[in-house]
Batch of 2 targets.
Target 1
Amino acid sequence: MSVVLIVVLVVVVVLAIAAVALYNNLVKLRNMVDNAWAQVDVQMQRRLDLVPNLVETVKGYASHERGTLDEVTQARAAMANASSPEDKMQADGMLTGALKSLFAVAEAYPDLKANVNFQQLQTELSNTEDKISYMRQSYNDTVMKYNTAIQTFPAVLFAGMMGFKERQSFDADSGAEQAPRVQF
């Protein structure tokens, strides 16, 4: 064998090993994004399971606040029916806003605020919201790592051909920086 052939073979082997390592890293990052989304989804489902109990508790005290209760129910249904991560992100924003309105309404009912069931549900929802917030942050961090990996050299040359597509972060809805407006 000539020296040139050996050098060519070594270069080809090194490039093949680098390509395999690059592919494996991108697969690992994609799986981490999917797992992070699954964790967000689990916490959203937990919140969905708590909402009907909360609505029923509030109904007993604030039955004439039908609009707010309907808004929460509709937002929950939209969340439950959302199939893609993007749809779930949008529905999550609606449900979060509706729950904020519901808790604002509850402030006007001292008996409701003093109800043990309501307090427990409110605490559970608050804890769940904290977990969702943490899971969203974790998801966004993972998406950022993944997107950075497929957009940087040398992966950018091959990622598209290997089926790696950019993922969307979980962004706040427009208007989320403002508190919901509640009128009595």
Target 2
Amino acid sequence: MADSTIYDVIIIGGSYAGLSAAMTLGRSLKTTLVIDSGKPCNVQTPHSHNFLTQDGNTPKEISVLAKNQVAKYVTVKFQNDLAIRGKKTGYGFEIETESERFFGSKKLIFATGVSDIMPNIKGFSECWGISVIHCPYCHGYEHRNQKTGILANGDTAVHMVPLVHNLTKDLTILTSGEAEFTDEHLAKFEQYNIPIVESKIVEIDHQNGYIKNVIFQDHTKMGFDAVYTRPPFEQHSNIPTSLGCELNEQGYIVVDDFQKTTVEGIFACGDNTTYFRSVANAVYGGNVAGAKMNLELTNEMF
């Protein structure tokens, strides 16, 4: 079923970045449709931190408040649905949803986020976002001075170790395989008494997502309060690439300083464009995307 309305903008993704873009566009009197399936990647995270005015609130509390504020603008509409396909049209773009609805717009914003790929470690996914965490800025203060592991190897571990060591000195590197460090890095870890465990991890023993022990293939185990890691990811939606948007070597959507993709009329913001995953950064990216898109639309109509 097709919606006869041709919106100025369709935003795919209604979390922090998408809602931020929607507020900017709504306040600029641009007709905007937000399509969101209601399945954010941080659904398990108990509390969100390092975002002014909302520090310590749950991700859902922040998003509900944000959506309620955006919904006050009459030019913004919401569709609870999953966008599955997109195509270019004479007027701009058409988006098809899982419920077989069709929506048209002059321009698109993708705030679709990414999907983390869980490793083959029993208990990992149940702990992800709770005690298996990715960001010392988002979670580090709450785990300061606790027994902490870094599940990483090579350059990723080298990057994370100083940041986490700043928060706790009870730190162990878990490479889950042969360590890949230079002699210089090994000397630095030894200098700060940071051990490296190369044994393969097979399970995370936990209670309701909170780590008790990391269990290794040789049946030994180590107790931890938290483990930092950065699992691989993939784009949550394939619509951007199907429309021609380029990805960089890391798998993020390529955007310029104003969140514009490599395809005319398409912007992207939030976790799908940057490794810096935080609420504050998502809100910033959405705000920039909305403002620049409003400028383009306004200039085209002037």
